Amino acid sequence: MTSTEPPLGEKLASLFPATTPLLLHLAVFGGSILLAGLLGVALMRVRQTTLVYAALWAMAALIVLLVSLTFSLSQATQYLCWCVTFGPGLAILGAKRPQHHGWNAVVVALWGLLVYPVVQSELIHPGEAINLGTIWPWFLMAVLLILPAQFFATRFGWSAFLAAIAQGLYFLPYLPFASIAPQISAWQLRPHAAFGLIVLAALLAEWQFRIKREESLHVADAIWLDFRDSFGIFWGLRFAERINEAAERFGWPVRLEWGGFVLFPPDQSITLAEALDGSLERELRPTLRGLLRRFVDQTWIDAHRLDAPLKQIPPR
User: What predicted TM-score, i.e. pTM, was given to this entire model?
Assistant: First the structure.
């Protein structure tokens, strides 16, 4: 009795999409190497903060996307892989000590909610097109907006927006308004184009990070802007709220707005730098330190020279 099992070479060849040119595979591999390098640099920068889990989720997303774009996976499996790209944005929402460790379970649970209708569809109707029903497309849309909503008013706003466009491009067939662009939804290279946009978003974020701040920036403003840009609007607004509560309680002549500290009331005989120096010598410095320790290590605080009696810090 002869075996009908195909040769090993045919098995390996069947793993790769036959319609995808070799050049496209090389582009995906090159983009993955570039993105891995950028994520590695980012991981080193945030290792002293609670954002380390967001960076690890980004690494995990890169790995599963590389697998998804390289091998012949089912439509459902590709959907599961791309849902991992929501991990970094979701992880930032829980990036405060001590819950930042356990928050990863929430991220996994939210990923489970996103993939639940797909898994259910595969079990009940295997091989058929993915159908998310009427509720899940709106839930998917809400999750897609988390990242740009977190960073739209920070220095990383455009890169977050570009990353969201990349996610939206891939998930377009599953969104509530998919019918308005049927040709894009049916585009065979849509996942590859979305991955390319993610690489561009990472490059843009790196360029935005390297833009130096004003040399005359006060140490308190520099700390605030770095925190705001790193942790986004959700934690930034909460941080500013706590600072302003302390300012009112202790009578500081300053208030913290989105763009930095301002005089309060504005018509004072002292400058903003003098008011900040005076507040730092009182309760502002320990207040800043206490709030920051919920998000960053002492090494990060020392690097930002919170305890240094200087009005300026070197620009970043």
Answer: 0.83
**pLDDT at residue 11 is higher than 60:** no
- Residue 186 pLDDT greater than 70, yes or no: no
Residue 19 DSSP symbol:
T
- Contact criterion met (CB below 8 Å) for 198 and 35: yes
What pLDDT digit, counting tens, does each position of 41-80 carry?
Answer: 999 999 999 999 999 999 999 999 998 888 877 888 899 9
Tokens 């070479």 appear where?
A: 9
Contact criterion met (CB below 8 Å) for 70 and 25: yes
CB of 284 closer than 8 Å to CB of 241: no
Q: Which amino acid would we find at residue 140?
A: L
Burial label for 118, CB within 10 Å (0-12, 13-18, 19+), is buried
Within 156-292, residue ranges assigned H as helices are 157-171, 182-185, 190-209, 219-250, 272-279, 285-292
CB atoms within 10 A of CB 289: 14
* Residue matched to tokens 């996103």: 114
Give dist(CA 178, CA 223) in Å, integer: 42
In angstroms, the CA 93 to CA 313 distance is 29
Q: At what angle do helices 52-70 and 75-83 cross, to 10 degrees?
A: 160
User: Measuring CA to CA, which residue among 249, 240, 252 is closest to residue 282?
Assistant: 252
pLDDT in tens, 132-159: 778 888 999 999 999 999 999 999 999 9
